[in-house]
Amino acid sequence: MCDTGLSIAFDPALPQAVPSGEDVVLDEAITVACGTGVNPDGSVVPGDKKSGLYQLVAPDNLPGVMVTVSDTVPSASFEPYAPGTYVKLTQAPVSTPSAVPFSGAVAWQITLKGDALLTATDAAGNPAMATCTVPPKKK
């Protein structure tokens, strides 16, 4: 199961009234989550997390957000991936963590010892994290 609720929050809240010509400084908070599953042929599997097929979702109001996939069992961290990237996540506690190119709409096969910790970082360096449950490798 994924953390719920994708959101972007600003502090102070919008809208703001300022004198003409003055800047408004906002602290931005992005939220990241694993999204809907997808089959290798590109067809969507709504809510099917048993397959391990996920879309990395990280909305932000500025370009430049990247998502890193890390292992909750401290052992590995992979790329930063662009939001919207489809990945297949597999849990294999006795395997070596890896990220290898996959096929079709799914760009990467990522094998982890534990669950996935997603970290989205925007162009200003603001991070947001979510944990996704990863199904065990089928025997």
Question: What is the secondary structure topology, with strand pairs?
Answer:
Layout: E1 8-11, E2 27-30, E3 33-34, E4 37-38, E5 44-45, E6 53-57, E7 66-71, E8 77-81, E9 86-91, E10 98-101, E11 108-112, E12 116-121, E13 127-132
Parallel strand pairs: 9-11
Antiparallel strand pairs: 1-2, 3-6, 4-5, 6-9, 7-8, 7-12, 10-11, 12-13
Kindly summarize this structure in a few lines:
With 139 residues, the chain is mostly beta strands.
Structural commentary:
The chain is mainly β. 0% of the residues lie in helices and 41% in strands. It contains no helices and 13 strands. It has strands spanning 8-11, 27-30, 33-34, 37-38, 44-45, 53-57, 66-71, 77-81, 86-91, 98-101, 108-112, 116-121, 127-132. The strands form four sheets. It has a five-stranded mixed sheet, with no helix packed on it. Strand 10 (98-101) and strand 11 form a beta hairpin.
Share of helix, binned: under 10%
Radius of gyration: 17 Å
Quaternary arrangement of the chains shown?
single chain
Structurally, how many domains make up the residues?
Answer: 1
Mean pLDDT across the residues is 75
SSE pattern, N- to C-terminal: EEEEEEEEEEEEE
General form: elongated
Spell out the key features of this protein:
139 residues, mainly beta, 5-stranded mixed β-sheet, 0% helix
